[in-house]
Design brief:
- This protein is mainly beta.
- The chain has a single domain (about 15-140), classed as Rieske Iron-sulfur Protein (3-layer Sandwich).
- The protein contains one helix and eleven strands, in the order βββββββββββα.
- The longest helix is centred in the C-terminal third of the chain and has 9 residues, at about 130-140.
- The protein is globular and about 35 Å long.
- Residues about 1-5 have low confidence and may be disordered.
Length: about 140
Amino acid sequence: MTLARKPLVSTPEAQADWREWRVADWSGLSDPGARSFEVGEGDWPFRGFVLRWQDALRAYANVCPHRSHPLDTPVDEFFSADGALLRCGSHGALFVPESGECLIGPCAGRRLLALPSRIEGDAVFVKAPADLQTAIELVGSS
């Protein structure tokens, strides 16, 4: 079991058309805690989630590498029963919160797409594409 792998991140070139979105308030996230967000317009807006884990911010595309389903089924339920791992509600895949690596499940060894994120005051900002198809293509190429 490898826990030290870095998250899947897109290249700066791939992020050239991405914009920064305010998606949550830091004070509204428990530790551990996660909240989904949706940004962009049209039929396929981008879906992601922010994660507060060990008082650090992380953000990922809300796209399971197995079948491109959102992880939180039901909405905003991202953690395994013991709270130690992220869980895909569709097929039970389990992911390391720090790296997004899948440890157990149909996508074992693959990773969630990490998103650049930052906190300014109480505002949580994430850099992400405006459409879900971009994330699906990047996760599918991992």
